[in-house]
Amino acid sequence: MAESEPRSPQNAPRHWRYAAGVAMAGVLAFGGWGLWRAWSPAPPPAPAGPEAARDARAQHAELEQLRQRVTTLSRSDQISREANRDLQGTLSERDEEIAGLRADVAFYERLVGSTAQRRGLAVHALRVQAQNGGAWHFTSTLTQNLNRGAVSAGRLTVALEGSRGGKLQKLAWDDLRQQPNAPGLAYSFKYFQQIEGDLFLPAGVTPVRVIVRLTPQSGAAVEQSFTWAEATREGSGATAAE
Fold first, then answer.
1. Residue 209, strand partner residues
2. Quick check: pTM over 0.85?
3. Residue 165 forms part of a structural domain
4. What DSSP string runs through 122-180?
5. Using CA of residue 48, residue 54, residue 57, residue 58, what is the dihedral sign?
6. Phi-psi region at 158: left, alpha or beta (left = phi > 0; alpha = psi -120 to 50)
7. Is 64 contained in some domain?
8. Which residues have C-beta within 8 Å of that of residue 73, sequence separation ≥ 6?
9. Does the residue 14 lie in any domain?
10. In this structure, is residue 194 part of a structural domain?
11. Cα–Cα nearest to 162, from 214, 213, 241, 229
12. How confident is the model at residue 227 (pLDDT cuts 50, 70, 90)?
């Protein structure tokens, strides 16, 4: 049998270069495929099936329902808050009205009730409120229940005591009305009446006391004094002591 020809040393490098070339071509081909995958546009998504479309519609409907519910609850809360504020305001007004009516009932019971103390002509209360231009508006409540059914008539005037420049100052009705020989305010009633008028205080005068004088058509005059602080306080003003 013939012996094979031994491989010459010159042929070895040629085979090695061939193998290296094949390997290099494979590497380049793989790298090119990777770059193409990285930079090529993504394929369009597969069209959704009927079940996916139904799920999307259901989610959209649920979302709209939740939004509508939030809007409704928010509006309901706003309406409740407004109604509560209105109710609180109404209750406060009712409390004030009830307090006023109770005071009126107590006043009428003292005046015309079966156990009321009989009193002649009197100034029951006085209230003074500031107006524009240095004017003061007063409201005086007159009462009498001594002669039931009889009419009390006459004139009302007001005087004031105060201080100006550290000295006592007394202002008569003419001074407070800024009118010489100013007539008093007429009154005529059986049980009670409110008389209203305006006073004008000169600049620099600090009021201390107000004196209301009633001059009936017959009988002696009646005077009742009130402190300025009581007459100008918030509420019903000053009330004569029983």
1. 161, 227
2. no
3. yes
4. EEEEEEEEE-GGGEEEEEEEEE--SSTTPPEEEEEEEEEEEEETTEEEEE-HHHHHTST
5. negative
6. beta
7. no
8. none
9. no
10. yes
11. 229
12. very high
